[in-house]
Amino acid sequence: MSFLKVKDLSVFFKRNTNDTQKAFAYKKDIQVVNTVSFEIEPSQIFGIVGESGCGKSITAYSLMGILPNNAYSEGEIIFNGQNLTTLSGEQRRKLRGNQISMVFQEPMTSLNPVFTIGYQIAEVLMTHKGFNKGKAMTKAVELLNAVKIPSPELRVKDYPHQLSGGMRQRVMIAMAIACTPAILIADEPTTALDVTIQSQILKLIDKIKKDMGMSILLITHDLGIVYENTDRVCVMYAGRFLETAKTIELFKNPRHPYTIGLLKSLPVNKNIPLSPIPGIVPRPDNLPEGCKFSNRCLFALEACKEQEPDLMPVSDEHYVRCIRAGEHLWKMA
Ligand SMILES: Nc1ncnc2c1ncn2[C@@H]1O[C@H](COP(=O)(O)OP(=O)(O)O)[C@@H](O)[C@H]1O
Ligand SMILES: [Mg+2]
């Protein structure tokens, strides 16, 4: 059984036709997520990795039902047998924070500066569980303890600015897990934090998964984080999945040149110079023909620039979108 099954999810932004672009109004909407499919199993940490701008957050927002007003999605998001895309706004609001919740990259901007952290956690419980304020505040202290905030009975009265970045992220996690959701989406939860705090937060997320049995979607631009923390991973580029596999398999046997490029830009040993992927991520309204990575790919052939390949199986549960996937390019890189 899978908790969450995403089928051919696409997300588009409407073009703004009120400005000088009016002349281009005939152009199609801008697609930033392109028919992605995946399944998250119970108690699994599932990773999505890719450079900035490839569509990771927008994928997460569509799962949460919080896309910006000028965006819309296509495809299915099936959670516990129910297609979420057919639900009303009110029904989705009920699921949010309760069954599916999310931790964002910037813990400061998602906390309200004028309320104590205790109150903000309590509010989640009052809204979704109908707790009275006293019971919710008691539970807030327990949650602060669960996310390892020292002296929780004192810190519960703190305002967000009184906490460090790492502590604020712990508070965000406490809010996200308050109603024991089935799925926690963590979107670059440690990107704003320094390295030692990063690993503490990731350990905490892993512990929560084990203690509460929830499934976690961990979004990151950092393959190192994927390696240490996920069970399965999708490598995303220009709104598409280019490679998906069990994490161990992806690192043992990377097949897509983009994955290989990301691996080569990992700082494994300070004596080996890093080799970043040349070029920059193309804008979604200006993607190359054929394979979307072909203009940066060290292994591209003429055929790559003509037709975009499908995501094809190379072995059990390992899929790659590259016509050269069978050539073991990793060994030549
Ligand atoms: N509100 C928006 N309006 C128009 N385009 C947007 C908006 N938000 C994001 N995008 C575009 O959608 C693409 C994917 O963005 P995002 O999912 O945030 O990337 P990631 O999280 O992987 O860095 C980017 O090209 C970005 O510019
Ligand atoms: Mg993002």
Secondary-structure map:
Layout: E1 4-13, E2 30-40, E3 45-49, H1 56-64, E4 71-79, E5 82-83, H2 89-95, E6 100-103, H3 107-110, H4 117-129, H5 133-146, H6 152-155, H7 165-177, E7 183-187, H8 195-212, E8 215-220, H9 223-229, E9 232-237, E10 240-246, H10 247-252, H11 257-264, E11 312-315, E12 318-320
Parallel strand pairs: 3-8, 3-9, 6-7, 7-8
Antiparallel strand pairs: 1-2, 1-4, 4-5, 9-10, 10-12, 11-12
Helix pairs in contact: 4-5, 4-7, 5-7, 7-8
Features:
single chain, 333 residues, alpha/beta, 8-stranded mixed sheet, 4-stranded antiparallel sheet, 11 helices, 31% helix, binds adenosine-5'-diphosphate, binds magnesium ion
Overview of this structure, please?
This protein is an alpha/beta fold and 333 residues long. The chain has helices at residues 56-64, 89-95, 107-110, 117-129, 133-146, 152-155, 165-177, 195-212, 223-229, 247-252, 257-264, and strands at residues 4-13, 30-40, 45-49, 71-79, 82-83, 100-103, 183-187, 215-220, 232-237, 240-246, 312-315, 318-320. An 8-stranded mixed sheet has the order 6-7-8-3-9-10-12-11, with helices on both faces. Strands 2-1-4-5 form a 4-stranded antiparallel sheet, with helices on one face. A hairpin with a 2-residue loop joins strand 9 and strand 10 (240-246). Helix 4 packs parallel to helix 7 (165-177), helix 5 packs across helix 7 and helix 7 (165-177) runs parallel beside helix 8. The structure holds adenosine-5'-diphosphate and magnesium ion. Adenosine-5'-diphosphate (ADP) is lined by residues 13, 32, 50, 52-58, 68, 70, 284.
